[in-house]
Design brief:
heterodimer, A: mainly alpha, flat, B: mainly alpha, 12 helices, 0% strand
Amino acid sequence: MIWAIAAILFWIGAWALNVYLSRGKINRRNKFIIPFLFGVTILVLWEGIVVGLGISPIILPPPSAVAAKFATSIPILWQDFVQTFVKGALSGYFIGCGSAFILAILIDRSPFLQRGLLPVGNFVAALPVIGIAPILVMWFGFDWHSKAAVVVVMVFFPMLVNTVQGLTQSDHMQRDLMKTYSANYWQSLLKLRLPAAMPFIFNGLKISTTLALIGAIVAEFFGSPIKGMGFRITTEVGRLALDMVWAEIVVAALAGSAFYGIMALIEKIVTFWHPSQR
Amino acid sequence: MMKNLIAVLTVVFAIIVIWYGATYMMNKQWTLDQAERAGVSLTASEVFKDTMAQERPQLPAPHQVIIEIWNTTVEKKITSKRSLIYHAGITLSSTSLGFLMGSLLGITLAISIVHSRAMDLSVMPWIIASQTIPILAVAPMIIVVLNAVGISGLVPKAMISMYLSFFPVAVGMVKGLRAPDTMQLDLMKTYRASAWQTLFKLRLPSSMPYLFTSLKIAMAASLVGAIIGELPTGAVAGLGARLLAGSYYGQTIQIWSALISAAVLAAVLVMLIGVLQNVTLKRMGMLR
């Protein structure tokens, strides 16, 4: 009980500190410290309440138990990470985004195809595409190939819609200028329209990072070899070893954030000229 | 408008043609194997006919799926466990509960973020970070754990939908509630309006276009959440359960019909919000 009260007191104290900090000047340091403090208080509150109220680890393991499990089972976690993320999600991500990008460039030359494909693509992008997972597992087998296929289907349409939209972003004046330079189609595509499309393309790429990870993990629910993050989560839930499940969630969260972060970093380098980056 | 319709129809037609072609290519092997075992040789047209009417095809032909959907919706009683409408209804109920909870949570969060700088600085980064966690992967755990606590049925599935749908609403509403410009906010100040009055008379009305856009995304997301939430319940009921049962027993036609009905459900729900958006914005005079 004393633990829970101490945790709540800590939370109140940290929140007061956050309120005080956010009243002051917002510099880079505070912009990092305030959310960091909030994250720490959540962890402390979690630990304190679970330990203090004696909640069974079968329902909610405390963060310390998760950290301990994480440290002792790094080989298994690494093996699952390679199977699901590197083999399944990454390869599917590159194939899916690459082919969507190429198709977008191809249909860019035909206004007819654009008018026809864009509404269909928008429609498909809003559908529960993940439902196609059991079919693809049936077609491509249990190993990572089927997971990559699910990822390809999931990331394809958001990427296609974003790229096609991005290619229309250059305005009339700019295109006229290219014409007065007597630039041909490919020159104006490479020098004007693709760079102008980059914010949209990176929007698609960033949305796709999360979708890729979700697709690869959920596809494993429908059948997988005896490794992989989705496999581990379902089997460990069955054994009620929730500390392992949470360790796997930590891996997924770290991988997802790092993947997103890398894409955001590349975006920052490529689209340095865009108002949102300045 | 007419031009667009023709273009869309052409693309849809092309997809159907490709689908039929793929059906032939993928089911051919099985037909030929069967014929070889029976010791008969088939003509090309017989092979084609057989690929279109297998019981457990690799890829069912579109008309097979449509017939299956017709059989399991119109021909069956709604209360029957084999009726797709029954399963869609179960998915719909957890989708809409999760959607409601998620939208309310999102709007509440957005309002507190707009009004408190401490909330903005400490919670907002975590809201964005929360979406890099593939929550769908955690769905089985949430279901099992909530079951252990004694909560079962609709609520656990709705929780997953809620987690997926609160994010677009929160982010969109923060943008929407900040949409009024300084002039308008200053005017409210000269009227000596309190924070609540500003919220209800200025901020909320001007956030409506943002709200509806994010509600559409949230609706699609919460349907996905509900379907995934049904997977670990052991294939009892719902569209997700149909998917899982179909994949266990190799009933491809059943998988495809569940998939298509999920797609139709998503389209109808999103369209409903679109209609609501048009009516509301028109009455508010924001639609030109």
